[in-house]
Amino acid sequence: MLDESVYIKPGERIDDLQRASLRIIQNPKTLCFGVDAVLLAHFARAKPGECVCDLGTGNGIVALLVCALYPVRHVHAVEIQAQLCDMARRSVAMNGLSSKITIHQLDLRSAADRLGHGTFDLVLSNPPYLPKDTGLLNPSSTLAVSRHEISCSLSDVATASAKLLKNRGRAALVYRADRTAQLLSTLSQARLEPKRIRCVHSKPGTDACLILVEAVKLARPGVVVRPPLFLRDSDGKASAEMEQLYKGGTLLV
Amino acid sequence: MLDESVYIKPGERIDDLQRASLRIIQNPKTLCFGVDAVLLAHFARAKPGECVCDLGTGNGIVALLVCALYPVRHVHAVEIQAQLCDMARRSVAMNGLSSKITIHQLDLRSAADRLGHGTFDLVLSNPPYLPKDTGLLNPSSTLAVSRHEISCSLSDVATASAKLLKNRGRAALVYRADRTAQLLSTLSQARLEPKRIRCVHSKPGTDACLILVEAVKLARPGVVVRPPLFLRDSDGKASAEMEQLYKGGTLLV
Fold first, then answer.
1. B252 FRET partner, CA 20 to 30 A, in A59, A112, A166, B134?
2. Whole-model pTM?
3. Hey, what domains does chain A have and what are their CATH numbers?
């Protein structure tokens, strides 16, 4: 059995993704993936042979899950932070996926210039949630860049996605529910027309915490608002749908 | 007992609103109110003493329900079609609400010039759902004007609402769920910031059929996506929440 400890650095740990024997390297002090990444990967519905771009991949979680869930051709994952790129590359290598996933240390605003305009079938993103003027933050920290709009705004993500996508290509995003209106407007302005929405609630009777949106480049207006997704039932147990996603695993955070 | 037949014309009928002894005159050949009007009136949450405008009131259903539900100061209801204004006025008179509700036969695009700019606390609208280039329609018919964007576009409704409202005043709208993205973008463009959203599903597990949105004039971005509203339970019976709205009545359509 392969000794995975050769892949990790001090402060990091290896977590099991409970799917296709995948493992991921995480550092609890910088960034651990959450339920949003898992939901996005499932929501994305990549088709066989598609070419996928993951904008702001962090430690590579969405790229890894997409490869585990769908027989895509290749995932190009873009991340501006060197430390996270390094961690993501080691996770990719550890899983033997170096031929399927390429990690690019790149500002997503220049992603299309480097990876090709109009070349992707699907662009995924779990963008920074918080406007940069909210909350206390240390702009030099890995976590701040990942959570706040320091390196890129929502509009940057939409513009970059539109450039990367073929006509009729899809962008799939997960975002904080309280920014739903901005997300939909920003996508429309970038000519990414929202076509499928799903609201995520922690349990029945609560406000949505996250929103999942699929938008299609240059599509006609008209969106399907899918049934709500509840993370837990009223009694606090994981909902049947989440059980299905996690297959009884321990990913729920 | 008052003989209500003096209020109605051939082809019309009087329906009981099951609330505060209210009755409404309807003509099944032109327009009968639906669940959307009932949901909008409940969603609107008018406060005591508020001045309310209902844009595109049709037969007056939302104006009547708002008066039944909330101790508002006055409802100014705007409707472009003479036949519907006539029907709405007779419903208002029949219910003894002529001092509370005024029906204005008016193009909503000139509503602010006639009723006052920046004078309303709350504007309600159940706008035409269908772009005018969709579906077969007879542009001369009452039903076509009510259902299609013939006399006004969604953007006209948003612009008119923004003019009528005080700063921090609220617009509450009900709309087809498949036009959610356009509705939110159009409101934002009119500087009506979406602050509260509710998706309406016919039953659990189905796509949303309607969306309810409250937007606040000149507010900061940030919206609450409230729990979904299900019209019926999985077994097809009216949901507890709808039972509550209708108080066991027969309004459900």
1. B134
2. 0.89
3. 4-246 (3.40.50.150)
